[in-house]
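Dear all,

This email documents one entry for the complex benchmark we are building for the journal club exercise. For each entry we list the sequence lines for every component of the assembly. Then comes the predicted three-dimensional structure of the complex as a token string, followed by one or two observations. Please use this as the template for your own entries, and keep the labels exactly as they appear.
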Amino acid sequence: MRRHAYELFLRTHLILSAILGAAIWIHVWTPQGLIKILLITASGCFVGSFLYRWCVQLYRNISPSNLGFIRIATASRVDDGLMLELRLSRPWIIEPGHYIYLTLLTTGALSLVQRHPFVITWWKNDINPGSVYSNIVNIMIAPRNGWSRRIVEHTGSLHDTRSWLDGPYAGLRYDLHQYGCVLLFASGTGMFAILPFVKHLIKLTQDSAANTRRIKLVWHTDQKQAITQIATWMQDLLDITVQDKSASTLYAIHSLLTAVVDT
Amino acid sequence: MGGLRILSCVLLGTIALMCLYRISLHLYRHYYKGLRARFFLHIVHPRLFSRPFLLNPTRADTILYLVHWTATGICNAYNVGTLAEAGLRAGKIALIHLVPLFAAPHLSLSSDLLGWTLASSYRLHRALGLMAAAQGIFHCAISIHAIPIPTVVGAACLTVYEFRLYHC
């Protein structure tokens, strides 16, 4: 039920929490020691975390030098899904597993109040490719019901759309670099969540900061455009490894497409 | 005499700490990986019931829930003489459980700052919310003579509604 009524649950949960918080303030605000300390602590932390989050968001989303917001550089359909390339107003340090909450600042009034989490699948810096900071991030949106389906259907109108990002937040934390051989499995669009780990592993291996010598990647998919997209990124990774002649690393990436179905 | 006690405490305490460190290191090197794997295999990952059920927490979650509810129950009952005191204690415990919920409303941010996974934050949020709701209902039920019955019934209905939405 929660899956089908996620938005309803989220809104009602927030409204009920606010009502509960106000009711508690009215009900228990007395000069007693413990209760007063608890209320002040909770309120202080609430206000502090709220201000911190919005200050960070404002800093990351709006850049006075560029006079702009984060914008969608390209929006392209990848099979059923939508691949968004976002040009950041300030460069970020991205790590594998990072996810962001995306709000589109146009495409209808309802879009402004909707924020949805997406894993960052790819990142790069097109101005200074060697930098650890990235000014372009890619996210993959799989159409569900409602907002995601609507924006996937209106892919053409998304170019140069202003966006508001909350994050990046650390999601999955795996220290894969401590293993000599890393075996990864993915199916369908799950590949887009695994790819950042492969990229990070290769970067650490180049820097001689990983024990990893072999990466095996098994991907089961029937999505042709996704294969093309992933193959492009994979080729970028392999090109980097070829250029890295100084490192005495030995690693291999085996991608195995086990069920490519003609449609 | 006081100086001798301090000297002996510091000296023997240091030696005891060094021994403890050596033993811990030995245990970590020889048994940690195996124990960790068994712990995850038998405690962390398996669900309580083999088939999907309305509530099917993992064994680790079940143990933590039991510890939490037992400890809170002891706090509810410890040194309580009257029913009114029990109600007041329940209200304070509910408030204590609500503090982290209101202090960290954005779970992604709190899990990021504390170094937890988002799933762990969700589990903690759920456990604290359930306990706060239970204590709050108990507090209302005890003080029912001072609060209109529809308020108590409404609070219980809202709790059940949230619980159902969150778990189903």
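Observations: The first strand of chain A starts at residue 70 and ends at 78. Chain A has a mean pLDDT of 79.
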